[in-house]
Amino acid sequence: MIRARGIEKRYGRKRVLNGIDLDVASGGFMLVTGSNGSGKTTLLRVVAGLAAPTRGTLEVDVDRARLGFLSHEPLVYRELSALENLELFGRLYRVHERRERIGMLLGRFGLWEARGERVSTYSRGMVQRLALCRALLHDPDLLVLDEPYSALDEQGAELLDRELDELVGRHTLVVSTHDPRRLARLATGRLALA
Amino acid sequence: MTYFADVATLTRKDLKVELRARDTLPAMLLFVLSTLVVFRFALPEGTSDDAAYGLLWVAIVFTALLGLARAWVPEQEHGVLDGLVLAPCDRSAIWLGKTLATLAFLVAAQVVALPAFVLFFAPLDLTALAGIALADVGICAVGSLMAAMAAAGRARELLLPLLVLPLAVPLVVGGVGAAISPDGERYLLLLALYDGVFAVLSWASFEYVVTE
């Protein structure tokens, strides 16, 4: 599903990615690891189509309508509620049976009670849960998750573990993490960035 | 039809965010009214109406600039622009939605500001009002694109006026011309032409502004 050869990304004179090769088959789970500043986020942005590589070739066999992306930022409006945010993205992604899907995700991620409150009143962990709901809303074929466990408490992390367990095999995943031990059991491949 | 449904969804969202945050419209209203009051007392008695029309355009352009400077702030917080860019809708719908929302704020500010102008300075005839309406469309269309460009940079507040003001010169020329020239329709044509050309250019180039 993803095939990258010699990916290089520069911002001005600074080279963030240098000659990255990446192969992820359909249904695969690629774990991307590396220290701070190693280029994990940039690589995931390139894979998601948010940034174009400066050099190299990248083929991603999935339309952007079928791609789910979780970033360092939650990509939701602070002044809207969880329900309004998911309703907005549900419309843009043309999600069928939108209300049912939104209700199911909010319930699963423990946000149903707070669904009508503005995101600006949420804790960081709740915002991260909402960001996961947004990324999963349209049941994407390819999920690109950048540090999905950040800001989650133990309960939230266990919820995410269960979610990933269900997704593995049915969806293609590219996940960056500082804690590879947590996801090693699920990964079918690993890319360590220096 | 899906395209316009997306635009409507995005515009509604912008209006809802502004109704909740109340960041932009109150600032625009306060600015335009206080500017007109300052001009009212700064202009000496007996100043011609032509000078007043010129000052109206100073107030309009800078009020629009104030709205444009805030236009993409909700998308910058929490990185929402990336989320919108990844959505399968046509990316130009994001620009059009933002343009319509900014236009709604500018028109709302003018609903208060124009009667105040008439009260303080001079009457506005239909040609002058048509000039203002056409210039509003132009400045919001170009300004939304420039504001998106400026938002991507570090010095947003500095960059935005540098990008927008030179492009707003034809709008000011057209707007003032429509208000004071006996041949005002010619200036309306200029404004309509500007709107058409720059709206198409902004619509077509937005995608390249929001992707790295």
Task: Compile the SSE list and pairings.
The complex is a heterodimer of chains A (194) and B (212).
Chain A (H helix, E strand, L loop, with lengths): L1 E10 L2 E11 L4 E6 L5 H9 L6 E6 L6 E4 L11 H11 L5 H11 L15 H13 L5 E5 L7 H14 L4 E6 L2 H4 L5 E5 L1
Helix pairs in contact in A: 2-3
Chain B lengths: L1 H20 L3 H18 L6 H23 L1 H4 L3 H7 L5 H29 L5 H27 L3 H25 L3 H26 L3
Helix pairs in contact in B: 1-6, 2-3, 2-6, 3-6, 3-7, 3-8, 6-7, 6-9, 7-8, 7-9, 8-9
**Count of discrete alpha- or pi-helical segments spanning 4 or more residues of chain A:** 6
Give the strand order, joined by hyphens, for the main sheet of chain A.
5-6-7-3-8
Helix fraction of chain A?
Answer: 25-40%
Question: Rough shape of chain A?
Answer: globular
What is the CA-based Rg of chain B, rounded? 17 Å
The share of residues in helices of chain B is over 70%
Count the E strands of chain A. Answer: 8
Low-confidence parts of chain B: none
SSE series of chain B: HHHHHHHHH
Q: What general outline of chain B do the C-alpha atoms trace? A: globular
Biggest sheet descriptor of chain B? none
Tell me which oligomeric state these chains represent: heterodimer
